[in-house]
Specification:
This protein is an alpha+beta fold. The chain is built from 16 helices and 21 strands. The longest helix is centred in the middle third of the chain and has 19 residues.
Length: 481
C-alpha cells in the first residue's frame, strides 16, 4: 500500500515513520511511504505558500495553487484517483473501522494544513475525506497524518508478523481487548489467572470474552451499548440458526457492523468484504415483503449497498427494484455446528506429510497461483480475487503422491469455498480431505465453518451432510449491481 503525505515539514514526517513496524513493512515491499514538500510547488521566489485571509482575521492561510499543484503531482500518476484525506479538527473522528476502510485502498494521500488552514476552494476540488484524530488543535497536520498511517499500515496483510494480532485487539467486535499477561507467573504478589495456565483453549476463550465484556462496560459504555445490540441481533437470528449462520458468524468473529435492526428484521455489513446481509427473523408467508430498511435509511446509506445476501425470498423483488440489484445465485446455507474436530480417518497426516492414502495438504502460495486459476474457474472472471485470497486468508493445496490435486479456502466474507478437485484425481477423497482439514483448522480457532451450496447441487449437499454439516432448507439469494 502506498501512503503519500503532503506537508511543509517532510523531514519531520519521515523521521517519525521510518522506524519499527512501518520501516519493516517498507523494507519488505509491503508499504511505500513518502512525503511531498508543498513548498516545492510555490511560484514565489522565497517559496512562500501562505497569505492573508480575505475578510480579515488573525493568522495566515495556505494558498490554493501550491497545494493543488502538489496534489496534482501525486494524483496524476495514479490510474485510479486515490482518496485524499485532509486532517482537520472539523473532520469525522478517526476510528478503527475507518482505519480498516482505508486499509482496503491501494493508495492514500494525506494533506497536512498549517497556520489557519488551507484555502477552501482547493479542498472542495480535491479532498475526498475530512478526518480528525480528536477534539483538539495541533500546530499542523503532520502528527495526525502519522497516527493515521500507523493505524492503517498495521492492517495491511504481512506488515504484522502475527496476523491474528490485528483481529483480536481493542475495538474488535465493539469490545476492548481482554487483559494480557507474560512471565513471570507472579509479580509483586499478583499471579497470572489460573485459566491462562490451564491449556484449555475453550475456557481461555470464554475467560477472554468475559473480561473483554467487563472491561468495555466499565471503560467504554458507548461501545458496550453497540456490542449489546449485536448480541440481541444474534439472539434473534438464532431462531433460524443454520439459515443465518453467515450473519451469526460475522458477529461472533467481530466482523459485523449493525446497519439497521427492528423487531422483525436485521441488516448487517461484513466489514472485511463490504457485503451486506439482510433477513427477517422469521420466514414471512407474504409473497412480496418490503424490507423496512428501504424506508428507514437515507439515499447515501442505500447507495453503498452493491452486494447483498438476502435471506428472505419475499424481499428479493423489492430490493432489486429499489436498489437496482440483480439476483445472481440461489443457495442453501450450510454449517458445521459441532465444536469437536472431525476425525481424519487416515485421509492425510497432521504435519503436512503424505498420509496413508497418498494425500498431503499444505498452504497455497502465490507460486501456485496459475494452477489455482486454471482449476478454479471464477464466475466473475477476476484473477485478482484468487491472488487476494492467497495473500489474506488460509488457502490450501492438496497433493496426491506429490502431484497438485485440488484447492480450497475461504472467501473474503468469511465463508468456506473455492473447493476444486483436479479432474485427474477425482474419486480419491481429495475434496473430503481438504474440507476436513480446513474445518478442523477453523474449529481450532473457535470458528464455525459455514458456506453456501447452489440449490441445484445435490452432490455437494450430500457431501456436506456426510461430513456432519447441517444444510438449511430455506434459500438465500446473492444480489449485486
Amino acid at each position: 500500500m502506498k501512503f503519500t503525505i503532503l506537508t511543509l515539514f517532510p523531514d519531520m514526517v519521515m523521521s517519525g515513520l521510518n522506524d519499527s513496524i512501518i520501516k519493516r513493512g517498507m523494507d519488505n515491499g509491503l508499504l511505500e511511504v513518502g512525503a511531498v514538500n508543498i513548498r516545492d510547488f510555490s511560484a514565489d521566489k522565497h517559496k512562500r505558500v501562505d497569505d492573508y485571509t480575505y475578510g480579515g482575521g488573525a493568522g495566515m492561510l495556505m494558498q490554493a495553487e501550491p497545494v493543488y499543484q502538489a496534489l496534482s503531482s501525486v494524483t496524476s500518476e495514479s490510474q485510479k484517483k486515490p482518496r485524499v484525506v485532509y486532517v482537520t479538527p472539523q473532520g469525522r473522528p478517526f476510528c478503527q473501522k475507518m482505519a480498516e476502510e482505508f486499509a482496503k485502498e491501494e493508495q492514500l494521500v494525506l494533506l497536512c494544513g498549517h497556520y489557519e488552514g488551507i484555502d477552501e476552494r482547493v479542498l472542495e476540488e480535491c479532498v475526498t475525506d475530512y478526518v480528525s484524530i480528536g477534539d483538539y488543535v495541533l500546530t499542523g497536520g503532520e502528527l495526525a497524518s502519522m497516527v493515521i498511517v500507523d493505524a492503517v499500515a498495521r492492517l495491511v496483510p504481512g506488515v504484522l508478523h502475527n496476523e491474528t494480532s490485528a483481529e483480536t485487539e481493542s475495538f474488535h467486535g465493539e469490545l476492548l481487548e481482554y487483559p494480557q499477561y507474560s512471565r513471570p507467573e507472579e509479580w509483586h504478589g499478583k499471579r497470572v489467572p489460573e485459566v491462562l495456565l490451564s491449556g484449555n483453549s475453550k475456557k481461555i476463550r470464554e475467560w477472554r470474552l468475559t473480561e473483554a465484556e467487563k472491561r468495555t462496560k466499565e471503560r467504554r459504555p458507548d461501545l458496550y451499548e453497540k456490542y449489546q445490540l449485536l448480541q440481541l441481533a444474534k439472539k434473534r437470528l438464532s431462531v433460524r440458526k443454520i439459515h443465518h449462520m453467515d450473519m451469526i458468524e460475522a458477529i461472533n468473529r467481530g466482523r459485523a457492523t449493525l446497519i439497521y435492526m427492528d423487531e422483525t428484521e436485521c441488516l448487517l455489513m461484513e466489514n472485511q468484504s463490504g457485503t451486506y446481509f439482510h433477513t427477517t427473523y422469521e420466514a414471512t408467508e407474504q409473497e412480496t415483503y418490503r424490507p423496512h430498511f428501504l424506508d428507514k435509511l437515507g439515499p447515501e446509506s442505500l447507495d453503498k449497498i452493491i452486494l447483498l445476501m438476502e435471506h428472505n425470498e419475499g424481499c428479493v423483488s423489492e430490493i432489486e427494484k429499489e436498489l437496482g440489484l440483480h439476483m445472481e445465485y440461489q443457495n442453501h446455507t450450510c454449517a458445521l455446528t459441532r465444536r469437536e474436530k472431525l476425525p481424519i480417518r487416515g485421509l492425510y497426516a497432521e504435519d503436512g506429510k503424505e498420509g496413508p492414502t497418498g494425500i498431503s495438504i499444505e498452504p497455497l502460495t502465490l507460486s501456485d497461483l496459475d494452477y489455482a486459476l486454471g482449476l478454479y474457474k471464477l464466475q466473475f472472471d477476476d484473477p485478482e480475487y484468487m491472488k487476494h485470497r492467497i495473500e489474506n486468508d488460509p488457502m490450501y493445496l492438496a497433493r496426491f503422491h506429490g502431484a497438485p490435486a485440488g484447492i480450497m479456502g475461504m472467501h473474503v466474507d468469511g465463508s468456506i469455498g473455492m473447493l476444486e478437485v483436479d479432474p485427474a484425481f477425482r474419486r480419491k477423497h481429495i475434496g473430503f480431505a481438504l474440507e476436513t482439514y480446513l474445518y478442523n483448522k477453523m474449529i481450532e480457532n473457535g470458528e464455525i465453518p459455514y458456506g453456501y451450496i447452489f440449490h441445484t447441487n445435490q452432490i455437494s449437499i450430500n457431501m456436506q451432510e456426510k461430513l456432519g454439516m447441517y444444510v438449511a432448507k430455506e434459500y438465500s439469494f446473492w444480489l449485486h449491481k
